Amino acid sequence: MKKIKLRKKHIDIVNKSRFYFEEATEKNNAPQWVAIFLSAIEQYKRISYASDNKYMPGDEADCFVAFVNPFVKVACLELMSTYGVFYKSLNEQVQLELEFQLVKKLKRICSSTLSSGFKDNPVDTDLNTYVGFVYKKPLIFFKEYSVLARLLSMHTDYWVQSVAKLIKRMLADFNEIDALFFSKKFDISSCEAIVKMIAGLQLDLSDPHEQGQSVTIIEFNNGEKLVYKPKSVMAEHSFGVFVEWFNKRIDLELKYLPVIDKGCYGWAKYIEYKPCDNDDEINRFYTRIGMCSALLYVLRGMDYHHENLIANGEFPVFIDHEMLFYPIYVDPENKELMAKSNSKSDIQSGYYESILNTRLYPIVEKRVNGTMSDVSAVGHCSINKINAHLPANDCSDHDPAKYLSYITDGFKAVYNIIVENKDDLLGSDGLISCFADSRVTLIKSSIMT
Asked: Which of 17, 136, 218, 444 pairs as cysteine with 226 (C-beta 3.0–4.6 A)?
């Protein structure tokens, strides 16, 4: 989208919403989000509030969805202008899934502000009437709620950029992806042919990264799936190198997540959930859990909760390693070990120096809303839902304590190897150096919500 000059009637909106940036004037070029915003204002004039909306199926009415429709229209036009050939090649259902992702995001952003404006408005008797009135005079509304104008516009631009990056990166890397993950099963005669093979998308599978991008599962029409991660996957690659070294020294082989790291993003093989077929496989699954926990314990791993583990038959496969080498420091005041994100009472109990810190094993934690829950990989169980982290999906009688002996045997086997090879692992060219370029995450405060 081209740079534009600000008109006098828009300057107040820009300045009020950009309160910590350089003041905007008629002589300054508008920031990128303003171009999106002004295009949306034009769409408010062209699209009637009561018009049919493909994002509201059947007779379902949603005033918030109707309100953000002009921004979604701008996003689609912008995407068509830059990646029109490839975006048109996507089937209609995939396009709708992508667009509905933006609809949901913008709806979350605007709903509380519109609801608050309605409560403060003494004229309109219902929310739909109020939003319909605002829809007809958007500049007046956005002059009062100028930060909302910026947020809707910025996230619209983020969505355009993230979809464009996903398509561009997949096309650029597909030869490598096909060779490593799919044994060259695909017809890659042209970029359009690759895009046309996309049958579906699973979106927003992670916390947002880099301006709203999230983990996405791409489903192809031949049944294969691919995972896109909008961040470096060097930690996952390095963990694979680490596991391969141990696989040469242990009897029970471990599996890891195959990845392709591209610096600021990466691709991962889709790991299918497969429950174990018999008790022997379940026993070996928990032996491997113990083996993996020894690796994660010495690597100071955290955040290995149930959503970061897939049971692939008798193999536990961890799909995210962004919180390895989690730091501790000494408080200069009282010389106690303190974890960056945790309280003194927890440290005193030894929790953060124990295997429990990995989040692998059962521990009940209090959330911000006051409820108690166990989100651990081994302990969590959802009734009437697929438990893809457990070796048996039916967890009605799930009791990980039954497998404690297998877990401890696995832990001891790997931990003994670590102790015996400590010097080789920690040497200047030791195995641990494979993590030197890995990017990891530090959370300064609890994210339990």
From this structure: 218
